[in-house]
Amino acid sequence: MTMTADFRRAPLSDLAAVDITSAAFKADPFGFYAKLREEAPVFPVKLRLGRQEQRAWLVTR
Known about the structure:
This protein is of the alpha+beta class. The protein has one domain. The protein is built from four helices and two strands; from the N terminus they run ααααββ. The chain has helices spanning 3-9, 12-15, 23-27, 30-39, and strands at 42-49, 52-59. It has a two-stranded antiparallel ribbon with strand order 1-2. Strand 1 (42-49) and strand 2 (52-59) form a beta hairpin. Helix 1 runs parallel beside helix 4 (30-39).
């Protein structure tokens, strides 16, 4: 099963734990974004900036 298929089946709460800065995410982000468009077109995320985390929003529509 591909990462894309995994994201499409995952509950929205599981998507909050996704590290969008990881190499695995960057290799196949399409399922993640498809799920967001369906269920939460504006979604809060945390970005790691060195030792700090910054809150940001992903807007998919």
